[in-house]
Input
Amino acid sequence: MSERLLTIDNLSVTFGGLHALRNLDFHVDQGEIVSVIGPNGAGKTTFFNMISGMVTPTEGDILFKGESLIGLDPNQVTARGIARTFQNVRLFANMTILENVMVAQHCRTKQGLFGALFNTKSFKEEEAAIRAHGEKVLGFFGSRLVGYRLEQPASVLSYANRRRLEIARAMATKPEVILLDEPVAGMNPKESEELTALIGELRSEWGFTVVMIEHDMGVVRDVSDRVVVLDHGETIAQGSYDEVSTNPDVIEAYLGRPAEEAS
Amino acid sequence: MSKTMTPELAPPRAVLDQDWGRIGRFGGLIALSLIFVALSNMPVSMETFDLIADQVTLGDVSLWWLLLVAGFAVGKEVVLEGMTTHARGPRDIVAGACTGAVAAAGLSVLAVLIDNFDLRDPLINWSPQTLEKLSLGGSVGSGVVLWLVAGAAIGGVGGSLHVLSERPRRLFVTMLVSVFLIAILETVLSDISEDIALEWLADIVYAKRGGLTIVGVVLVAVLSGAYSWWGRVRAQEAKERFQSLEGADRTRGNAIAFGLVAVATVVLPMVLGGITNELLANVGLFVLLALGLNIVVGLAGILDLGYVAFFAIGGYTTAILTSPNRGESWPDWMPDTPWFAALLLVMVFAALTGLFIGAPVIRMRGDYLAIVTLGFGEIIRLLFLSDWLGGYTGAAQGITNIPGVNVFGLTTVKGTNPQAVFYLVAAFCAVAIYVSWRLEKSRLGRAWMAVREDESVAEAMGINTVNVKLMAFVVGAVLASFSGAIFAAKVGSIFPTSFIILVSIVILVVVIVGGMGNIAGVIAGAVVLIGVLGGPKQPGLLQEFSNFKLLIYGALLIWMMLQKPEGLIPNVRRTRELHQEEFLQDAWLRGEIDTDADPSEGGVAPA
Output
């Protein structure tokens, strides 16, 4: 069995009286692609926010390679090797496409004031390396984000390309685990099919472990090793896509109970 | 930004087919402005300043220009694609004349009111002098008639600008503005002309008792007119050629332009007189401050309203280290450090203060941060003013006897030698420009931009926002402290009143008006505001306006926010941000806008 990368242990968070997540137990192994699904408001994005350090859990623990992530700032979590994208695309709209992926390498680089002011050799080398890595991750998406596009502001990009750039930006932080929040939302079938293939490549070619929130069941079926279903902040099912999709609890969460039982 | 179009012109509309509501609105608005100007005492206090000897005073112009603007503004039309546009004609002149008359009528009402009621208590300028000015030398009745006629005439001239085609219009405006500028800059230009042996020219152009002579007016009008008619097109072409340069040519062009500016910076002060050099030195001090604030606000997006604190720290640290007159509580063995040695300590101390103030402040965001910095700015000043630290800082008496800067035993830079001060300031500005330029394109600069764009996302992308923002605070603090150190040596004494909150605000206005995030813009802003209008305490070129400085600052700021929020020389990113829609439209017109298709597949965007 492969190495256990991320362990969520009895995790709960409450906002006021609302239990956004309740006693969540969950793990991700090295090289897995895990999908988190569930109806709206099930707590999926809160779950991501908690892993990435933007929300502190009220109870429980998150272990990454055996070390707790609780209490770390988002930038420290990213530095440990967990990168994320956002559901409502949040690029640095007025920075160029290249700058978006360059700035994401901040925590992997270290040149400060001195190097920049005196234009030292190590500064130039690091800048070149940042640029090269930036172009490399952009190249992952074919010719869409490279060439003359590099110097264009992110705001001119189409919706689908913004999503691609978000993923590229997360890749640029050189993570081990990448958290994708609805990567294909708003894409047409051809585009989501293509992106599904790329998500597979994130593992096979880049060696990333992927945790993904997704509503598109086609995508979930095609790439996931394992599916976790959340409802009202609780795990109601885990397993392969086939197991989960036939689970009566899952069907109930999505479709509601049959009329005769409900009464 | 938008493309120019040549719309099909419909025949001009009938003279009386006017938008009377608009005329009333504009007239009323200008009337209110006129009344405001009259009651601000501008017409009376500037009465003694002759623009054209014995003919026109600055006081007159303070009212007349508004009538010209009224006549022009009422005829302005927004032309959009697909709208019918009428050719311009007598209708526009009539509209202008009517608006001017309405505005003048409003002012006349004020004259009549002053004549009949006494409101001197709340309005100190509700005075016989104002009335006399508004009556144009005669009785109130004749004044009213004269104002109506003058209003209609000047408004009509303003309206007729629409009828003229572009070239003659520019000719007219250029001539008018040139005559005004040459007239108002009399003191400075006379001062300069003496230094470059052109007194004979100044004697022809300017009358003995002040103001342009008639010959001078004609000379200036003809020269500026000639430039406008023939020279302007070439200048425009040259500018466009320069802007269309790309790649290596562009870099070379920029280098040449930069070199020219550098040479001018070195050579000009030698040519210019004492007054102008003093002015340039003041501009330089504010350029230095504004460049520092530009890093904090323009790059990192931290709205610091207490920036003057670091200016004060620089000034006081220098004063305490170099002056023999430092507060009596300091031990006797403390040496009078030379300025350059003191500067090192100033830097260290400014950086520490930056950290000290920054550490609690930086965790806040947006409005909260702005208010807290405002508080810290005042706290620092009040500490210097307090009796508690009075033994160290001299409290309200300040610290005097600050020696000048001894530059390697060659020369001493102090206030009596403004030229030397300017060179010193310019050297530090060069350092600040270099620092801004290098940092903007570095790892740190990118992190600042990301924080400015979206702080939470920047943090999620691995940027330690607290460290990065503190760094911006510290770099800004050190640059401001340089300015403070030079200020102390230049003035020779230092008091808490030099570091009032107004200084923070003026620096911020310089950055905003110049163009936030753009080095050239910030410099331009300082030249325009500090050089032309003057700083919080420093006189500018237009000394006549010094009493109305803050009024003009405010008016200018409002006008800029409405018309050109990105500043005089804007930063590309900021322009994009503020004109997002236009930018995207332009990109679309150029075919650069993105479709979802992968260009390598030669596909088209899905419908």
